[in-house]
Amino acid sequence: MASWCPRDRGADRGGGYRREGLAVKFLNKLFGTAEEINGHNRCPTYLYRWTIITTRWGKVYLHKFVGDDWSLDFHDHPKRFISVGLWGSYLEATPAGERRYRAPWFRTFPASHQHRISTPWGHCWTLVIVLRQTREWGFWHDGEFIQWDDYVAGKGGIADKMKACD
User: Are 33 and 4 in contact, with CB atoms under 8 Å apart?
Assistant: First the structure.
């Protein structure tokens, strides 16, 4: 898994690739290969997600943000979740504005929380606890909710038009 994190992403923002590379190898052996979140291959991977624990009440994930959300549209979630900032920081944009969060933090969100994450200061590690699914999730384009699978499948060309990468 040598190319999972391109050297040009964040090299001037704290780097630490050798140390992170060892951590990622260890995590992949311990929890299985990380899931890559990238908008159905529309953009470079911006989030690596390891499933740490699965129970009947929910799951615990370890997230490594390495870039910005792939879509410029806000998204919400299917589950209530708790985010614990472990290392680094990110910028969260919501309909109410933008705010930088620096580790450590403890935040909780309803499933309906709309946001978009970016990482202008380098990588960010979080522990995320999600509860049972309570709703369908999706993206918000021009104030209209679009279910995630319709959005990602490219219905109406919105996902391609709104992707955050070139």
Answer: no
